[in-house]
Design goal:
Layout (H helix, E strand, L loop, with lengths): L10 E6 L6 H12 L3 E6 L3 H4 L2 H8 L16 H8 L2 E7 L1 H9 L5 H8 L3 E6 L3 H4 L2 H12 L3 E2 L3 E4 L5 E5 L3 H14 L6 H5 L6 E6 L4 E2 L5 E2 L6 H12 L3 E6 L11 E4 L3 H13 L4 E4 L6 E3 L17 E3 L3 H18 L9 E8 L3 H11 L4 E6 H4 L4 E2 L2 E4 L2 E4 L3 E2 H19 L8
Parallel strand pairs: 1-2, 1-3, 3-4, 4-5, 8-11, 8-13, 11-12, 13-16, 16-17
Antiparallel strand pairs: 6-7, 9-10, 14-15, 17-19, 18-21, 19-20
Helix pairs in contact: 1-9, 4-6, 5-8, 9-16, 11-16
Bound molecules: cytidine-5'-triphosphate (CTP).
């Protein structure tokens, strides 16, 4: 659990669109309050059909803003709220809200307030999967991302009407985590466009999840990596303007919007995918995947039948990160003899999940894999959950971070990647 004071003193406007997920906005308002935020609410008229404005009056001691023509407002309430808020979060952001925002409309209290917002703006979409899948919706999402809006979800899962698919709103605690991460990364109330542009022009590659090493058509050797850290890294990089390639092993997560996701199964498939993308030019590689070090020496074509005792012979898989580190070192050596020196790209970042001696092993991996940074954590802190506690280990020393959401940690890692790039004065791989 995150400490309850992470949003202490932050002023948050929760905007509510007209969809069935509006009932979850009640829990979001409570969650933000529990984390120390001061919350105000703006609703579309349609939202009031799903959840009563009086509910928010009861929770917050003041009525939500629904109608800009309401004579009880003294001044321009949308301008005042937009000025007041450190951040605005819209949950649910319906297909209709996304479309109107992408067009720059301001035809109700919610849209007008969003248009006046000086802090960052986070959208938590929720709609039927067929609406989310509409090319128009995807175009609108892309437009809004480009304009600097932050997104959280939608996720894959059961919907209120019994259907299932991508379109379910992220859980209130996950939305609160995403808001916290965005605010933490950008020091609070800075404009959304400015906040999200610092990776623009970079082409980055992130790996995620486990690899599965097949024994036969029905069995494999795998591990318990959920892929959440790698997906958080990919989403945050996209939100900050990077062109993102995500190479993922088998995980139960939805492809992040706006990210090119390549699904692989085995370490050798991941190796091939990473090598071919790096060859095309990449500025930063983050190996968050839990790559299997070994695979069965033989993969049976038919299901293996039981017969007495068995020993399993394993052979080594390629070490992807170590290989990238060695190749980069070779290029740097070659460049040292050139008249026109080339820079040691890409920046290489690895992870180390340990059960003991976290820092010592991480330092060892930093050297043996010749990378720039190792994000080290203990198995009990990082697996499967939505939070992580990491140590950033580089040649400069160790930075030990508090427990935080994976989205917030992702931002800290991208901040470190940017620092490493500027320290080495690297040009971009794409020449942008
Ligand atoms: N890694 C990799 N290829 C492998 C194994 C690991 O690229 N075959 C990467 C991981 O993605 C991670 C880093 O190397 O970024 C460290 O992974 P880890 O499994 O902790 O290190 P190992 O070298 O496998 O060491 P060990 O399992 O012995 O602790």
């Amino acid at each position: 659990m995150l400490p309850a004071v992470m949003l202490s003193g932050k002023r948050i406007v929760v905007g509510i669109g007209g969809g069935i997920a509006a009932f979850k906005a009640v829990e979001l308002v409570r969650e933000l309050g529990r984390r120390g935020a001061e919350v105000r609410v703006v609703m579309t008229p349609a939202a009031t059909r799903f959840v009563g404005p009086v509910t928010f009056t009861g929770l917050l001691g003041r009525p939500p803003v629904v109608d800009l023509w309401d004579p009880s407002y003294a001044g321009e309430v949308h301008v005042e709220l937009g000025d007041w808020a450190d951040a605005m979060v819209v949950a649910p952001a319906t297909m209709n809200v996304l479309a109107r925002l992408a067009q720059g409309q301001a035809n109700d209290a919610l849209l007008a307030t969003l248009a006046c917002a000086r802090g960052l703006r986070l959208l938590a979409p929720a709609m039927h999967p067929s609406m989310w899948g509409q090319p128009a919706t995807q175009r609108n999402v892309e437009t809004l991302r480009t304009d600097g809006w932050h997104f959280c979800g939608p996720v894959d899962g059961p919907l209120a009407n019994g259907a299932s698919g991508v379109g379910r709103m992220a859980e209130p605690s996950v939305i609160a985590d995403a808001l916290e991460a965005a605010l933490a990364a950008h020091g609070g109330a800075i404009g959304a466009a400015q906040a999200t542009e610092d990776l623009r022009g970079l082409r980055v590659l992130v790996t995620a999840g486990p690899t599965y090493e097949d024994l036969d058509p029905v069995r494999f050797l795998g591990n318990r990596s959920s892929g959440k850290m790698g997906f958080a890294l990919a989403s945050r990089a996209r939100a900050r303007g990077a062109e993102v390639l995500l190479v993922s092993g088998p995980v139960a997560l939805t492809d992040p919007a706006g990210v090119t996701t390549l699904r692989v199964r085995s370490a050798r498939e991941m190796h091939a995918a990473v090598k071919s993308e790096v060859a095309k030019g990449v500025d930063v590689v983050i190996m968050a995947a839990a790559v299997a070090d070994y695979r069965p020496a033989e993969q049976a074509a038919e299901k293996i039948k039981k017969a007495g005792e068995r020993a399993l012979e394993l052979v080594r898989n390629p070490d992807i990160l170590a290989e990238l580190g060695a190749e980069r070192a070779e290029r740097a050596t070659a460049a040292a003899h050139d008249t026109e020196p080339r820079s040691p790209t890409p920046v290489l970042i690895g992870f180390a999940l340990e059960t003991t001696d976290v820092e010592r092993y991480a330092r060892g991996k930093l050297v043996s894999k010749r990378c720039d940074l190792i994000v080290a954590n203990e198995a009990r802190d990082g697996f499967a959950g939505d939070t992580n506690r990491a140590h950033l280990v580089s040649a400069d020393g160790v930075q030990s971070l508090d427990t935080m959401s994976k989205a917030a940690l992702a931002d800290r890692i991208w901040d470190a990647a940017l620092r490493l790039r500027s320290a080495a004065q690297l040009p971009t791989a794409t020449g942008n």
